[in-house]
Design a protein that fits this description.
With 356 residues, the protein is α+β, with helices and mostly antiparallel strands. The protein folds into three domains: 86 residues, Winged helix-like DNA-binding domain superfamily/Winged helix DNA-binding domain (Arc Repressor Mutant, subunit A, Orthogonal Bundle); 157 residues, GAF domain (Beta-Lactamase, 2-Layer Sandwich); 96 residues, Heat-inducible transcription repressor hrca homolog, domain 3 (Enolase-like, domain 1, 2-Layer Sandwich), CATH 3.30.390.60. It is built from 14 helices and ten strands.
């Protein structure tokens, strides 16, 4: 069922169906247990019989919004039901003062080490939410001032990158056979004319096109060297975004079923092995603010049945450079988690912008 269909269902619900649905979801998010009709009759503002509530719950189950884990058990929301609740009925809380203070205290110990600061952000998010946290650290995105290739032998070379902010990186790579100091200088001259005032990300977008159109201006060896150098930049971890995961124990402790524990372990094994984590940025680049992914809506978390609440953080130019988020079971307290993630992302972005 498409989300537009789910939204139409919500609009077409009468007040009683909406109240029953809200009560089921809120009770489930709080306890994690199936909700029965007798329990609901005590929590609904409208005084109705248990039989009436059962009929409404059956209708909601027919619509795919609720499910019954066992024949005689109460109901729990489906993934579609949770999505409809989050999009249409979720009441986001104000950020609690104690949560704000814990996050501020962690980020306040800002010693100038960005990596260390973001490590502390992950620990703070995990501690405050009692879930598992994700922090996608930014790449080094300063503009390039100068590039130089240095031969270290017949099978070893080094790229020296000088950035406009004074940052210098030296990266080793294996050059193509037949390279000479002259061809390396030629390749460096070609690149320096192309990259001045641009970031590595900017350069990678159209480097192949530039090489194709200007191939005649450089010999074959220089062309190979450029491609080899670019490959070395992409393979080297120093400019790549890094994923920080904290609070694995929190997520494992929240699941008592062996099958669920195995799925959660599989999720973390995948996170730890994952080399290309740029997709976390792609999750957030479609718009500002917090996004919520429930279960299979995010392919990485689909097997574990987890939810991800994630928000991008931006630099001074309003460009997305990283993301922070919280992983938890689908019965996360979304109303509390959303403002925590949102506040943390905005604070990290401000700190990094002020630093630059």
């Amino acid at each position: 069922m498409l989300m537009t269909d789910a939204n139409n269902i919500l609009k077409d619900m009468n007040d009683r169906s909406r109240d029953v649905f809200r009560a089921v979801v809120e009770s489930y998010l709080e306890s994690g247990d199936p909700v029965g009709s007798r329990t609901l009759t005590r929590s609904l503002s409208e005084k109705v019989s248990a039989a009436t509530v059962r009929n409404v719950m059956q209708d909601l189950e027919f619509l795919g919004l609720l499910d019954s884990p066992h024949v005689s058990a109460g109901r729990v929301p489906t993934q579609l039901g949770l999505r409809m609740f989050v999009d249409g009925l979720l009441e986001v809380e104000d950020l609690k003062a104690q949560d704000r203070e814990k996050i501020d205290a962690t980020l306040g110990r800002n010693s100038g080490d960005v990596s260390g600061m973001l490590d502390r952000v992950g620990a703070a998010l995990s501690g405050v939410t009692q879930g598992a946290s994700l922090v996608l650290t930014p790449k080094h995105e300063a503009e390039i001032r100068h590039i130089e290739f240095v031969s270290l032998g017949h099978d070893r070379a080094m790229v020296v990158l000088v950035f406009s902010d004074g940052h210098v990186e030296n990266r080793l790579f294996t050059p193509p056979p037949g390279q000479t100091p002259s061809s390396m200088r030629e390749a460096a001259n070609f690149l320096n004319a192309l990259v001045e005032g641009r970031t590595l990300s900017d350069v990678r977008l159209d480097m192949q096109e530039e090489i194709a159109t200007r191939r005649q201006e450089i010999d074959n060896l220089a062309h190979q060297l450029i491609e080899s150098g670019l490959a070395a930049w992409e393979e080297d971890g120093s400019d790549q975004a890094r994923l920080i995961v904290r609070g694995r124990a929190n997520l494992l402790a929240d699941n008592g079923v062996t099958e669920e524990l195995d799925l959660i372990r599989s999720l973390f094994d995948d996170l730890e092995r994952k080399q290309d984590i740029a997709e976390f940025l792609e999750l957030t680049e479609e718009g500002e603010g917090v996004r919520i992914f429930i279960g299979s809506e995010n392919k990485l978390f689909s097997l574990s049945g987890s939810s991800l609440v994630v928000s991008p953080y931006m630099n001074a130019d309003r460009k997305v450079i990283g993301a922070v988020g919280v992983i938890g079971p689908t019965r996360l307290n979304y109303g509390r988690i959303v403002p925590i993630v949102d506040y943390t992302a905005q604070l990290v972005g401000k700190l990094l912008s002020d630093r630059s």
